[in-house]
Batch of 3 targets.
Target 1
Amino acid sequence: MSLSQDDVKRIAALARIEIDDAQAQATQTQLNTIFDLIAAMQAVDTGGIAPMAHAQEVFQRLRDDAVTETDRHAVFQAIAPAVENGLYLVPKVIE
Amino acid sequence: MKWETVIGLEVHTQLATKSKIFSGSSTAFGAAPNTQASAVDIALPGVLPVLNRGAVECAIRFGLAIGANLNRVNVFDRKNYFYPDLPKGYQISQLARPIVEGGALKIVVPSTGSGQSEERTIHLTRAHLEEDAGKSLHEDFHGMTGIDLNRAGTPLLEIVSEPEMRSSAEAVAYARALHTLVTWIGICDGNMQEGSFRVDANVSVRPVGQAEFGTRREIKNLNSFRFLQQAIDYEVRWQIETLEDGGRIQQATVLFDPDTGETRMMRSKEEAHDYRYFPDPDLLPIRLDEGWIETVRANLPELPAAMQARFQNDYGVSAYDASVLTGTRALAEYFEAAARACGQGKLAANWVMGEFSAALNKAELDIAQSPVSAAQLGALIARIQDGTLSGKLAKQVFEGLWEGAGEVDAIIEARGLKQMSDSGELEKIIDEVLAANPKSVEEFRSGKDKAFNALVGQVMKASRGKANPAQVNELLKAKLQ
């Protein structure tokens, strides 16, 4: 499998990364190298092996349902670029 | 052409845990912005999620309640998309191996017109755990958007049905049954205004008899049963008109505008997100052990479907009445206590669904706040049954109970509401009425039946409503012959 220029531009758009044609070209080459590596791994016969969700054969530890956090918004908001009435302000995005 | 509607619902239920799904922040509604958003919730670099046992247990409860398969090993995935109220740039959700698969819910669709109500079983596809996003406030902050992350990380169970509903009435009946169930088993507070129970409807139409589904459009975020019904009805009309005019339906996501009653396109398939799901490396697979599942099963209350069947058997109420009476656990418990107190299931059902529910609605009270206890209502019904009270007098006693005027018998005594049982006294009243209304008597004798009703009315009035109407009829007839 190899990626087209259009694939690269679509992925960039999904990731909200602005790229020009030269960058798209370079990225396409790099990504295709990675896909070549994946293609080499595809040669391994994995028939009958259940896909793993995680590299280790261990399971998630669970936390008791209790409130342990306190209000620290003042500390967090001290590093935010814009804040008003306790809200983080971001450029307007409407769907 | 005859069209068939096909509907499937996706419901997001906020789980009633104290803390968030992956952090120890509070999930309480209505706090000041961002005061319940920890480092994990706002996605500061280097933080890791730790799964809340309570959220997993809610999902197990739900799976057991609908007879579903619980995946003993299930996995969290990342669903990637960019939006400012999703600070990580991905939502932790479950795609390939959700915690709950399959299961079914019995619904009772109210009759339209004179028909019988209809029972149906709706199958569920799956239910999976995920985290809620924050809230974007688009009011004017100097052209900026305000972000409140208090809701970010609130545990959700997304419950997906099969596309088995064929009308908006069925979709509403299913949504109501699901709402009843999740509040009944205590995994969700069910508050739709606060967004605890949000419905997305996938709607398509196809010519009757066609096997393949039509192209569907998804109506997002319906937060009332009325809007669900209105949105589906509008969408179905729109799709049929579009197809009959020779147009095509494009797969799309739409929003319902309650002010205009219309749906409008939010994004088309081409613009739809490509979520690039993959297993979340920050979370290990979840294992449900049998001991845990059995403990949860042992603690489940009697479920609405079982209770409906029991109410029909034990108290002789109809299937539809049984579904209304099990609308909430509190209502079901109230009904059963009243029915047991008086031993009159059907009468108790009529009173609970009629006078009692109307009084609660009018006063905008919950059952827990009712000034009339189930035992008092039962005592009142017992007095109807033994002939002390007519239905009309019973309503007056009920008003007295509601005002807190004391117990049933005391109110009957104090207000002189006992139905007249002495036929001598009643005969005396009838004689007086006949003497005072010679014209009506004349009319009746000359064949005007209406005149008889006028006389009954006069007798009831003279007895101040305390005469037994059946007895009045009988005695009056005898006297006029």
Target 2
Amino acid sequence: MASTTFRFVIFINVLFCLANIAKCLDNPNMLFNKDTSDNRVMSNSYREIWKKRGLIYNFAISDLKIRYRNSVLGFFWTFLEPLLMLTVLYVVFTNLFKSQIEHFPLYILLGIIFWNMFSRGTSMSLSSILTRSNILTQIYFPQEIPAISSTITSFLMLCFELIVFGIFMGIFQFMPPSTIILLPFILLLEFILVLGLSLPLSVLNVRYRDIQFIWTVVLQVGFFITPIFYKLSILPSYAQKILYFSPMVQIMNMVHDVIIYGKIPTSESITIAIGTTLSVFAIGYGIFLRAKRRVMEEL
Amino acid sequence: MSEVAVEVRNVSKTFRIYHERRDSIYEAMAAWFSKKKYYENLEVLKNISFSVKKGEMFGIIGRNGAGKTTLLRIIAGIYKPDAGDVTVNGSLIPFLGLGTGFQIDLTAKTNVIQYGILLGFKKKEIAERVNEIMKFAELEKFADVKLKNFSSGMYARLAFSTAVQVDPDILIIDEALYAGDMAFQKKCFDTIVSFKKRGKAIILVSHNMVPIQDQCERAMFLNGGMIEAIGNPDDVVEQYKKSMFPKKE
């Protein structure tokens, strides 16, 4: 019974967001912009973003570099930082929590790594337009670029942390199952999800400066309602039903299944994950297109 | 050579001047319910039309707040006009702020590369030209010095030298050239003259009348967002001076 309802909701959801994306890609002017006088800025946007990809990578990498500038170990901090952090978390959580979860240390490390990408990516993007305001008011480039490059930075950090995770797997003599080949698909999904939130957050934060404080709270709540250090099954069933529709919960479950337990995610959870992620992206991008119109003047 | 490089047609731009800035969601909601008008429209540019030909230097003068920078930003594509449109034929470098995006904690060389990428270079292309740029800026000795130890003149020289390397078809200059010593200023002007000879369009905004009268083919006087005068630089400057000091003979 419940599963029929789920399927129905998912179906509607997927339809809705596909339609939305198609419209957005086709003609953003038609949907969000009443005056069509301005063709130069809007309709060339996608091509322009692609043309400026060098700039995106440059922003993303210089963000990484600036993080560790003036430090003696320099680049090694990209590995050392997650290594130290994960070690501490491992010690704390395995000693405090006597969890029944199989491979608990790896379970929690993986959860933290994927949650970090989400929380870092969105909070870095949140301030990305404001911190680059001096450049944006002097040189034209599409307003999507700060959010995209911050998302890429957090994605690169995720990749570094996954390498460190590989070290941990070695320490625990854990052989990853063959389902790990599905990982790129999950990474892509999380990237789209983070980008879909980053774009609207980056422009809205220019006008409403309290979004950053609200977002901090949202992230804190998100950390606890996502199965990072517990399994979804310990929650009461009504909570499970609601959280089932959180894209982050689905991504987290899929990551755990694929890397640790060697299970292929069910088609239902894959559909929900894709459906909710794309909906978030479509709605987020819609808000972004609407809000970006006057953002330059607010800087 | 009579081809048009920049064409501005009937451009208007209105800014919102907020009575009380609503920086938070709470304030935005409160204002929504009270239904008071919380901002006023300020027309910064009214129906501006002009064109700049290739190989021409075009000067824009006007008081502070006359809309000069807004106009440049619209040409550069940073702001979009509320009405009218702008056609730009060729690559364009907005030179609005010198050394935009320079990071004082990085070395001169790294900054040149970063700035070059920002201006549209590929990393490889700009890396090949770094030495040339440092030579032009006369800063070879300081290539590996962090920018925080630079003087403001050195800073401006570095930025200018990088930007001219991009070799844009259209150059927009907002008071940029008056940093650096006399020798470097001359170098800048020589560069600009050679730009002009090669058929590039230059838009210069300045409060200094000398380069407007000496270098520009045509000039425009903006007053309160409208074109007060356009044409021969000497006449335009004359009119500008009259409006600035009305009582003077």
Target 3
Amino acid sequence: MQPLFILTCMRSFSSVVSTMLGQHPQAYGLPELNLFVADTLGEVMDRLHTHRPQGLNGLLRTVAELEYREQSQEAVRQARAWLAQRRQWPIQQVFGFVAQRVGTRMLVEKSPSTALDETRLIRLRRHFPDAYFLHLTRHPRATCKSIHEIQQKTAILAERRTGTPANPESLWLRAHRNILRFTRQLRPGQSLCLQGELLLSRPELYLPQIAEWLELRADPDAVDAMLHPERSPYARLGPPNAPFGHDPNFLHNPRFEKRAPRPARLEGPFDWPAPDADHFSRATLKTARALGYQ
Amino acid sequence: MMTELRSPEAMTPSHAVAFNTLAVSIPGVAGGQRLQAAAFFRKRLYVGVLGDGGGDRSRIARLLRYYPGAERWEAVFETSVATPDGSRQRGRRPFPLELGWRAITVMPDQQGRETLCLSLLCARQPRLLLSDDGERFEALTDGGEPRPFGPLHAFQGWLFGALAGAMSDGIAEKSEGGAILHASRDPRAGGWLAANVPGFGDPHNQVIHSFQVFQGWLYAAVGNPFAGFQLWRTQARGEPPFDWDRVLEQGAQRYSFNAAAPAMAVFQDALYIGTGVPMGEPLLEDAAGCELIRVLPDGRWELVTGQPRFSPIGLQVPVSTRGPGFDDPAQTVLSCLASSGDALYAATLARTPEAVSGFKLWQTVDGEQWRPIAAPTDGPSAACLPRVLMALPKFLFVGGDRCSDPTGDRREAFVWFGKSEI
């Protein structure tokens, strides 16, 4: 069964959405593997260790869960050693290992890092030319505000690693432009786009459609299973040596609660400080409107 | 659910329609001309053309009538004074004042008599013309004020006209506050009344591009470059402004990638709607392939060709299995639709912000299985621009214009008469 990759910008509901879809009886939801930043496992580990050490948490937890049947500190230590012994593995082989362990179920993966660089998307397609791709969106105002807040929370770490935090608007625009360019090259039906706000406010309407698109069961039992992301083995904080792999807020409170979209407009000044502008650029407005935001 | 690519055989143009080319020319008139609108009236073909008038770059709008037996064209109306291009003013680039024909339609009255209604758009003197016989044309004003109309449509004894809006740089632009429709029971007497609230309540609903009557309703497709086109309908009961219901919004959930819907036609109990930004309006750099959507009698809609997507009424997968642009994303505008009853025809344009680089004609007999039609382009299709499509049983009419010199500046009108083998 071909995997499903959720392509999105950071802070765009991807943790809850991917975990919900992964709870479908015919699917298996993964935390962020961040595999597509490089071609081999060793390169992935080196890059993540340098730039974003917690980016490896999802892969460590996955190997611990699938190879050692638990997500304890000891299992994570063993997982780290397991990965170190396989540094030469192409990333497709890592994915193949995961697929082999979960059997016939559809793998559901989301790593917002993938969409930030076109070369990663090209790599993703090269390895998985027939996969499904869900382009998940969130209103740029809400996304940017959330990015700014997370940047504030991690300001000390961010400054130590990279200096000035990235502009939230630039991150949103880069990710979605990359995804739009990428999905245009795919076969019709290989990629669909969905506003996260719609899915989370009307899951009974959109979850069956996603299942139908993926050629999975769309019966009430399957939909009900997807409404319980908290049942995922990755929907809680991991051990201290690999606590994350998803959005920390989601890991603290993984239960799904239907939420009405908060009103947001593209026009108007930013709700966060930005050095160069206080309104969305024309490029952002154009891309946002193409994704259905006003 | 993934749409498989079609085999090369399936993309081979069929020969289900055999065309003859008919030059559109009248004695004594030199210079190029563009075909802009057409209608059959009293068993005669009328075409509205805009001629460049010769060397001084002035433009003349002419209405030509074709005599099949004599195989000749005759000018039955022309603008009395050649209208030159606007001169450079306040630093703006020159633009033509005469824009030519925006609509030609036939309006029946309660006694079954028909009137030919024509909209002529000119910055100096827009005109609404009526003719009972195709010989004499009456220019109408309303209280002395000429009204610049775009599309016209007759419905329930009313003549509806979409106001063309203010003009700038030669382009009919949006009306302030949103697109406005006017309606009159008796255009000769004037009495035009606003038939909708401006923009149907949304100022981003800028231009009404097409009308169609379907199952007792008048449908209007209004372009919205911010959120995607909307489709509205009315039964025109009582007096204007009428009650309108919104049938589609947000470009049928493709948002600004479906900014406009320039073509509609009724075929086999469904209303078909073609999307894409029409000629004369700015096109986004990354315009997507056009779509064909159909509205069913129960109000639901289906994707016929286009991008699969989620929607409030369920997963939409193209019933034709064809993706955007009939599997050719370069076809960004579905510019014309025409139904003969037995078949539905579509014309798509490969339009970029810079130019039109080609076109395709399509035919279906069931609304779902589409096949390309080979057209006698007499050269590369990039040189041809079909602007009008009309279908009668076993008969297809395509009117447009094509480049007639290497520079591409000069264009000549053409008409293809096609005999369908269906």
